[in-house]
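Worked example 3 (structure in, sequence out).
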């Protein structure tokens, strides 16, 4: 323990003293246990306030000089550190954070961030034991630069640590290449992404415990499916809906507004300055008009297949690129502010959290239950009786209507459901426009916040919300035990996938043409792929579409339509590839699911089974969901009120179990009920066996109180038996005399 403390104290020294972290020299260590450690250090870096160039010469220290052992740094557990941060944040979510920069000095967080960015960069995971000494030294130098304020976002030439894929020698670049490097847009630097990951590790647990339960985008454990299930459960009785598009905020906001929202909960100057510099530092972007002109000047040449390097990640497969094209409008825009990178979605939620809290207050103000309501009975409307998906007992009109409102935000899009007169919805829209203008400096109007009735159908996340009127038969027992049956009027919320939007996305991806009678088009991007590979790619795409429309009422219909388009597209592709003239001939040879091998233009190919037996041909997988009966039904699993993700449930349960009041309440309940805990039963069993060498009676078959009395009564029986034995011994001695 003393060794670790001394090492951390040694690593946190200033750059003026000749220590390990102040310079940018590198250690070189091999994997063999008999290898020698070579310590390199640049004495010129001690006098320079900036980090030297990675390719600058470094002088060797004589082998007799002492070397620092960095193995304790790799033994620290970053997961345990982050877990404690999550637990402490959820235990006291209302506290103001003032000492968050103390976690920046912890090297295990930087190592974990390096591993994550390395995996994103190269496509392979790097264990801690495989991190080379030079990379570890440069990583700690980056940490010290962040702590000392020497780190600059968007660096192009001066790096503290470079990407493992970056093999270029910056000292040998010409002036033209350096000018192009400084003026053209470049991907985010490797060291910038490491710092972004560290900041995300520290800020995410703090604000996840503070965020409203009404926001769902850019948060762990919450997806678009969560929004659809919440709408199905909680928006059933609403008549008026108001949609709002605040996505212009995701394009960029003033840094002062973001910092003002951030500083309400985090008062750490170093963290605030680091994020502020990321927002303020300009991002170098190239001129798009000039890029288009260069593309036009270039002649189109034959493009050869590019061979990927060993450390280069593979691009997304075709089926995944196709599915990304189906992203709904609410999820298509991703915030990217300045040099914040992956921090931008978190900062967007921090910025818009004030809107969520304001809407939660409006929900409580608007709620007014009616006396005849049997669904919403709580004072705040949070408690519900029965299934709100079938609110047939709630009056749909008249003075006894329950006034209630709910709200959901997914990224920059909001959806407000309101039960009451339209005038209340118009008044809420007016207040919302004033709030956005005052807090976010965002100009909204009535067109950007339309109010629509449920009968017209509300589009949200490519699902249509509509109402179906039902007339259930209500049976109840009247006075005297007479059963009365009456016809009631109620509403049922229907959540269906938009077939029109599905056709629009297919047309954008050039899979079909036409609106009224969609005609599939051949998928020429898979022209040079084999039949087995093409079918496998499309099956993955169809499986993903089945999962995407999992909670839609018309899941079978929309998935069957997608299967028809994909199957027709592949049939036209195979007809053009194998010269079969028509789709009918393709289906005749390859079957309905295109599983059989198709003929080649030169004639019949060898026997398919023989090639399969020899291992010269891949097995062809038939297309899935070619019939509607093969498509699974919609998932109507009940969605509980007050739902939370699994990781939040575990955190809250752990905090509750660690609380002493919980243990005292459990013990009090056990005493009042006359029960016995398993721990007490085992302890009494062991004590009784050690004292009297008698096994305790089994707990099964008798109640706990009887078992407790028997366990406590064994000692008394033993003592009485010993007294009786002594008396009988005295009587025997007297008889003998």
């Amino acid at each position: 323990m003393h060794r670790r403390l001394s090492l951390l104290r040694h690593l946190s020294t200033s750059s003026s003293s000749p220590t390990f972290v102040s310079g940018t020299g590198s250690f070189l260590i091999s994997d063999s246990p008999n290898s020698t450690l070579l310590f390199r250090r640049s004495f010129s870096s001690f006098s320079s306030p900036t980090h030297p160039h990675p390719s600058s010469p470094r002088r060797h220290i004589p082998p007799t000089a002492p070397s620092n052992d960095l193995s304790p740094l790799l033994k620290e557990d970053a997961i345990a550190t982050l877990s404690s941060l999550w637990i402490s944040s959820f235990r006291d979510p209302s506290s103001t954070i003032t000492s968050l920069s103390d976690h920046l000095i912890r090297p295990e967080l930087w190592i974990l961030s390096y591993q994550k960015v390395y995996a994103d960069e190269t496509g392979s995971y790097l264990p801690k034991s495989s991190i080379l000494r030079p990379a570890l030294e440069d990583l700690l130098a980056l940490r010290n630069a962040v702590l000392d304020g020497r780190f600059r976002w968007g660096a192009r030439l001066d790096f503290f640590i470079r990407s493992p894929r970056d093999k270029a020698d910056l000292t040998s670049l010409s002036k033209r290449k350096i000018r192009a490097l400084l003026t053209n847009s470049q991907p985010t630097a490797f060291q910038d992404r490491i710092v972004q990951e560290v900041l995300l590790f520290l800020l995410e647990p703090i604000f996840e415990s503070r965020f409203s339960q009404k926001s769902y985008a850019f948060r762990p454990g919450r997806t678009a499916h969560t929004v659809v299930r919440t709408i199905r459960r909680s928006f059933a009785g609403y008549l008026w809906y108001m949609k709002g598009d605040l996505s212009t905020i995701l394009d960029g906001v003033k840094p002062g507004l973001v910092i003002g929202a951030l500083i309400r909960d985090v008062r750490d100057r170093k963290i605030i300055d680091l994020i502020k510099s990321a927002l303020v530092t300009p991002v170098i972007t190239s001129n798009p008009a000039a890029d288009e002109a260069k593309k036009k000047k270039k002649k189109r040449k034959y493009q050869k297949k590019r061979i990927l390097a060993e450390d280069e990640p593979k691009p997304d497969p075709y089926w995944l690129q196709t599915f990304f094209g189906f992203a709904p409008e609410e999820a298509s825009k991703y915030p990217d502010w300045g040099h914040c990178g992956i921090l931008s979605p978190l900062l967007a939620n921090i910025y818009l959290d004030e809107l969520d809290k304001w809407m939660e207050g409006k929900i409580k103000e608007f709620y007014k239950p009616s006396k005849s309501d049997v669904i919403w009975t709580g004072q705040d409307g949070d408690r519900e009786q029965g299934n709100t998906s079938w609110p047939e007992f709630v009056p749909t009109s008249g003075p006894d209507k329950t006034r209630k409102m709910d709200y959901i935000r997914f990224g920059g899009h909001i959806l407000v459901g309101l039960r009451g007169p339209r005038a209340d919805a118009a008044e809420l829209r007016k207040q919302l426009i004033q709030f956005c203008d005052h807090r976010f400096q965002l100009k909204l109007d009535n067109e950007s916040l339309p109010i629509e009735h449920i009968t017209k159908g509300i589009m949200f996340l490519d699902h249509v919300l509509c109402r179906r009127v039902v007339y259930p038969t209500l049976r109840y027992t009247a006075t005297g035990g007479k059963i009365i049956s009456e016809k009631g009027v109620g509403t049922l919320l229907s959540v269906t996938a938009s077939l029109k939007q599905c056709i629009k996305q297919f047309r954008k991806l050039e899979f079909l043409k036409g609106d009224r009678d969609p005609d599939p088009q051949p998928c020429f991007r898979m022209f040079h792929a084999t039949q087995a590979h093409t079918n496998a790619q499309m099956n993955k795409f169809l499986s993903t579409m089945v999962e995407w429309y999992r909670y839609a009422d018309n899941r079978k219909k929309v998935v069957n339509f997608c299967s028809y388009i994909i199957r027709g597209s592949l049939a036209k592709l195979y007809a053009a590839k194998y010269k079969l003239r028509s789709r009918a001939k393709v289906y005749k040879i390859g079957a309905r699911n295109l599983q059989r091998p198709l003929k080649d233009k030169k004639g019949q190919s060898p026997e398919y089974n023989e090639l399969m037996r020899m291992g010269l041909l891949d097995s062809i997988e038939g297309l899935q969901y070619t019939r509607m009966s093969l498509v699974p039904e919609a998932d109507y699993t009940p969605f509980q009120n007050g739902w939370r993700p699994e990781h939040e449930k575990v955190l809250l349960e752990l905090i509750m179990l660690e609380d002493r009041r919980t243990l005292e309440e459990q013990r009090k309940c056990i005493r009042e009920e006359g029960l016995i805990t398993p721990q007490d039963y085992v302890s009494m069993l062991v004590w009784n066996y050690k004292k009297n060498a008698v096994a305790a009676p089994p707990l099964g078959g008798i109640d706990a109180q009887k078992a407790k009395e028997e366990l406590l009564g064994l000692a008394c029986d033993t003592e009485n038996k010993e007294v009786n034995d002594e008396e009988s011994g005295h009587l025997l001695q007297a008889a003998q005399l």
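Notes: Residues 1-67, 385-397 have pLDDT under 50 and may be disordered. The two ends are 76 Å apart (CA to CA).
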